[in-house]
Amino acid sequence: MIEKKSVTNNNLFSSWLTKLIKISALFSFVILSSCSPDDSTLSSSEKDSEPQTKWESVQTILSSRCISCHRSGRRHASISGLILTEDIAYASLVNALPKNSKALSDGKKRVSTSGNSEDRLSNSFLWTKINTISNSAYGSKMPTRGSLSFSDIAIIKSWIESGALEN
Ligand code: HEC
């Protein structure tokens, strides 16, 4: 009688244990599958295969935040040698040489399309101008008043990284 009882207890214990194992396996599956890889774990070639940011989105930002100064006839446009109105913004930026002498001697383009996504970013003076604090050699951070939103900065960044296409 006593033996029988202990056998039953044993069975109860092992079926409880089996349930516990099943439940914890299910939990770890749910937790693992909810973690998708974030941007930092993607290699640059994977980033390159992401949908490309359209030039149109970049031009929209330039037209609303930059052309008050960077338009034909403005003093700021002649100081910087840069016009960002729709008619010539793309040609003024992509693979064009910067007017800033430090950027020029560093070998930067206004927007570079050579190398991988990291090279393009580090060789693009446009990226330096919207992303880093003002520096005596590189001039002021753009725009000079206020600053771009994080999402605007991200749009310009991903456009440069993905090769600065015009479509
Ligand atoms: C209030 C006027 C003003 C606004 C607004 C402005 N800029 Fe500028 N920008 C300048 C001036 C002046 C210079 C030249 C001096 C300097 O580099 O700090 C310049 C220089 C630049 C240069 C360097 C050009 C070169 O070849 O050396 C880039 C790139 C640039 N601006 C991009 C932008 C972008 C992008 C915006 C909008 C997000 C913007 N600017 C908004 C006045 C302005």
Task: Describe what you observe in this structure.
With 167 residues, the protein is mainly α. The chain folds into two domains: 1-29; 47-161, no CATH class. The chain has nine helices and no strands. It has helices at residues 2-34, 44-48, 55-65, 75-80, 89-93, 101-105, 117-122, 125-131, 150-161. Helix 3 packs across helix 9 (150-161). The chain starts with a helix and ends in a 6-residue tail after the last helix. The structure holds heme C.
Give a topology summary.
Blueprint: H1 2-34, H2 44-48, H3 55-65, H4 75-80, H5 89-93, H6 101-105, H7 117-122, H8 125-131, H9 150-161
The chain binds heme C.
Chemical compounds bound to the protein: heme C
Profile the largest sheet.
Answer: none
Mean of residue pLDDT values:
82
Number of strands: 0
Instruction: Give the termini distance in whole angstroms.
Output: 84 Å
- Calculate Rg over CA atoms: 28 Å
- Parts with pLDDT < 50 across at least 5 consecutive residues: 35-47
> Looking at the structure, what is the overall shape?
elongated
The DSSP helix count reads: 9
Question: Which bin fits the share of residues in helices?
Answer: 40-55%
Residue fraction in strands? under 5%
| Sequence of secondary-structure elements | HHHHHHHHH
Which structural class best describes the helix and strand composition?
mainly alpha
Count of domain modules: 2
